[in-house]
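tool_log.txt
---
The assistant was asked to compare two proteins side by side. It first ran the structure predictor on the initial sequence, then on the second. Raw inputs and outputs are pasted verbatim so the downstream comparison step can read them without reformatting.
(1)
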Amino acid sequence: MKQLVFATANKNKIAEVKLKLGEGYNFLSLDDIGCTEEIPETTGTLEGNALQKARYVKDTYGYDCFAEDSGLEIDALDNRPGVDTAHYSGSRDATANMTKVLNELDGQVQRNARFRAVIALIQGDREELFEGRVDGYIAKEMAGEGGFGYDPIFIPEEHKLTFAQLPQEIKKGISHRSRAVAKLVTYLKQ
């Protein structure tokens, strides 16, 4: 069985990806390999940050790995928060981040947005990128108890409910991360 590290300590992301990867790989997290330091994310792009994290794990710990970076891009905010999604308000507090977005969009009619996830895979000396995307728009107020992050304000275009209001099975099936992971899994099974 091949070993593959997912360069994250985010338990929500780990659970979501683990379901999709299934058999064939001994799936490890950063905790499993003893990586407790903060991995840099300084490139300014989702693609660059995903590659930076994967390269850090490969170079420092020697494991084949993949890393993911994702962001919410809002047309009316010039694609912000984007790469700064996790700490848009200056902290990692999801409610503060959503409140900042809602305040910035106050009075805006055009609320189109998208979640993008980019996965960088390093196996040996080969690097690959996989992108997942879900289009939608930003609600006028927070709604729903499920999910995490910006889920209470993001409404995917094929639904009328926020990610936080949708059953988790539906959200996991259409999320940006799920779509990127599906591309990763297809590649790994080739």
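(2)
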Amino acid sequence: MAAKLLVEFIGTFLLALVIGMTALDSSLPAGLGPIAVASVLASMIYATSHVSGAHFNPVVTLAFTVRGTTPLRETGPFIAVQLIGAVLASLLSLWAAPPLPDGASIAPLALDVVPTLVFETIFTFAMVFVILNLASARPLKGNQFSGLAVGLVVLAGAYVAGPVSGAAFNPAVTVALGTMGVADWSDVWMHFCGEFAGAMLALAAFTVVDRESTTD
């Protein structure tokens, strides 16, 4: 189990670090963030999925736990190291990012409740639905394109939902955004609710689709 926890920590740490540095460094080209995030996520999935399943996301771990793929004894430790990795990465980002010009400070995301809930739910659903199919559907098990597929759905979600909700799709990322001041702590409940709802809806949809596909 130590190896699983280590790679879950590493993957979530690197994911949150890329998010943090691209969010805080104003000198980077506009639009680079989603590409960098999708790239590191895809790379870490390819590198570590054989060890832990490459969750890097508490609601992904929760979905696999409810499905019965992840043993309950691993759920808490997985989520703990994911959150620790995200917080440490956000602290490193705050320390390492160049200062904002002219003494400016970080402005938290301006989030509206309904759009944030809707977009976090939709794109968390899309991401978790893709992950469940790639990891669990019999025709797709053992495939060699999981990293690319997950990276692409996150890339699309980041561009579409980013201006609306901040495109977290991951409670560990949400905690990192709060730690960095990119999200206001009083607003993160919107992310958490949308992420949980999206993951559970994805699990329900996958259960129906998988059952139908195996009985045809």
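---
observation on (2): The chain has a mean pLDDT of 92. The first helix runs from residue 2 to 24.
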